[in-house]
Amino acid sequence: MTTKEKILDEALTLFSEKGYANVFVGDIADRVGIKAPSLYKHYKSKKAIFEAIIDEMNRRFAEQAKAMQINGTDAAADAGIYKTLPEDQLLKLGREFFLYYLHDDYNRKFRKMLTLEQFQNQELAKVYSKLYVDDPLSYQGMLFGFMVTAGVLKTDNVRVMTLHFYSPIYFMLTICDREPEREPEMLKLLDEHITQFDRLYGRNK
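The structure assignment produced for this chain is given below.
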């Protein structure tokens, strides 16, 4: 692991433990085992570290999506994949995404940090909403919209249908964050949720 990578890892760990506002550049340097001036050679500020963490999260997500043979950000491209996916493969994909978000260190720690900070820092509250509400709903809304237009799904309100799909999944994720021992229960419920959604909205088999 390079020094730059270690800075990001240690910074994210500290942010998730103490909250973003309570961590200083000197704290990060101490955890890495370097002096603050050395850290500034890699990142100009704590905000630059924060932004680099988001970039790393995006890079990891792109790798995960590629491994799952989807795009993950291009709803038009992914609609063609989802509309012909057998139900067992749909369930498998749903589980893989859920487990990725649950166990990926960057996502797990970042989500914890934003949970701590959302009531103290308006800027980070907006980041939380963007990453875990607005962006997923936007992508999935476009995805479902394409599938409705193609006659694969049936609804007169794509926005509400998108909420029906995503909200329980995020709810289950937060339960596992708080109570890790409930993961098997939530995975079973996830399968049931995806299966029922698939059948309620009429996805072609």
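Interim note for the steering committee: The CA atoms of residues 52 and 204 lie 41 Å apart. Residues 68-200 form one domain.
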